[in-house]
Amino acid sequence: MRTTLAATALGTATIGLAAGWLTAHHRLRAQLDAARHDATHDPLTGAHNRAGLTATADPLITTAHHAGRPVVVALIDLVGFKQVNDTHGHDAGDHILTTVAARLATIAGPVGIAARLGGDEFALITTGPAPRHHDADVWLNGWLPHIHARLTTPVNHHSRTLAVGATIGATLAHPDQPINVWLTTADQAMYAARARRTTTATATGPAPTTARAISRPRDRARPTSRLGTVPLAA
C-alpha cells in the first residue's frame, strides 16, 4: 500500500515538473519570438524596420529573379508631414504614418516588404509582371505615378481631412548586389526627383554583368536617372 502511494506521489510530482517545464519553455519561446519581432519591426506601424528589411530583402530578390519577375526597390519620403504634426498634433501624424504603412503593405502583397526606415521615410520591395509580357522599365515608370496617387490619398481623422505628398525614388534590383546597393540607388533617384520637382524618379543601378567590377568604390558608376512626369504642386 505504502509502495503504491509513494509511486503515485512520485508520478504526480514528475507530471507536475514536466508540465512546469513545458510552461516555462513555451513562455521563454514566446518571449524570444516577441523579442525577434520587436527587433525587426516598427512599434508604431507594425511594418518592418531597417533591420527587418535588410534581413528579408535579399532572399526575396533572389526568388523573384529566378521566377523571371522584376523586383522594385523604392524609397518614399512624405512631403508636408511636419506641417500635419505641427498643425494637428502627433496623434494625427501617427495616423498618417500608420495609414501609409498599411497602404504600402497592401501594395507589397504577401511576398513583398513594406518598411518604415525612420521618421517619415518608408521603403517598398515588390515584384512586377513577368518581362515576357511587359518591358520592366516601361512598366515601372507607368506604375510609380499610380502608387504615388494611392499613398497620397487624403485620410480622415477625427472629422478632419489630412493630406501629405510624397517623393518616390525607385530602381529595378537583381540578386548580384545586396539590398544596401539598391537602397542607395533608390535614394539617389529620390533626390533627383526632389531636385527636378517631380514626385517620382527611377535610377539604374549596377548591371548584372559588371557586378564584380563595380563593387570597388573607384569603379562604381553613378546611376543614371529617368525622371517621372508627375510635377509637384506649386
UniProtKB/TrEMBL annotation:
It comes from the Bacteria. Gene3D superfamilies: 3.30.70.270. Pfam families: GGDEF (PF00990). InterPro entries: Biofilm_reg_signaling (IPR052155), GGDEF_dom (IPR000160), Nucleotide_cyclase (IPR029787), Rev_trsase/Diguanyl_cyclase (IPR043128). Residues 198-213 have a biased composition (Low complexity). Residues 69-206 form the GGDEF domain. Transmembrane segments: none annotated. Residues 197-234 are annotated as: Disordered. PANTHER family: BIOFILM ARCHITECTURE MAINTENANCE PROTEIN MBAA (PTHR44757:SF2), DIGUANYLATE CYCLASE DGCP (PTHR44757). This is Diguanylate cyclase (GGDEF) domain-containing protein. The lineage of its organism: Bacteria, Bacillati, Actinomycetota, Actinomycetes, Micromonosporales.
